[in-house]
Task: inverse folding
């Protein structure tokens, strides 16, 4: 029963994460840049930040249930961020011969995403 409950929590978090991702993809920010996949970039960077911060807060700082922690980190953020889409978009840019845009997207996503993770950990330790 414990495993089934944990799976339900992860599934509920995942459903919310998937909906949040979709809402960002259809929001007005989706059209800010003509060829640069900004929604996925934003999702990956903000997701990296949130994973970093919440990993500290929900593990070391705040007392919450394992089910809720799994719902947020594995479920919500797992569904919200996805590097498979990131990789597919890089492939599409390369296929269109937009090599500079592909490189810029790759480089910024990895470096700024990592900076978001470090910033989230730093902020999480301050709470």
Result:
């Amino acid at each position: 029963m414990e495993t089934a409950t944990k799976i339900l929590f992860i599934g509920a978090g995942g459903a919310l994460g998937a909906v949040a991702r979709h809402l960002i993809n259809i929001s007005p920010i989706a059209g800010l840049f003509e060829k640069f996949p900004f929604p996925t970039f934003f999702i990956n960077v903000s997701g990296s930040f949130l994973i970093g911060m919440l990993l500290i807060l929900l593990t070391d700082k705040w007392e919450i249930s394992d089910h809720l922690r799994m719902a947020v980190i594995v479920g919500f953020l797992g569904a919200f961020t996805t590097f498979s889409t990131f990789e597919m978009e890089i492939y599409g840019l390369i296929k269109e011969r937009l090599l500079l845009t592909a490189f810029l997207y790759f480089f910024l996503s990895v470096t700024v995403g990592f900076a978001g993770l470090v910033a989230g950990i730093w902020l999480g330790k301050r709470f």
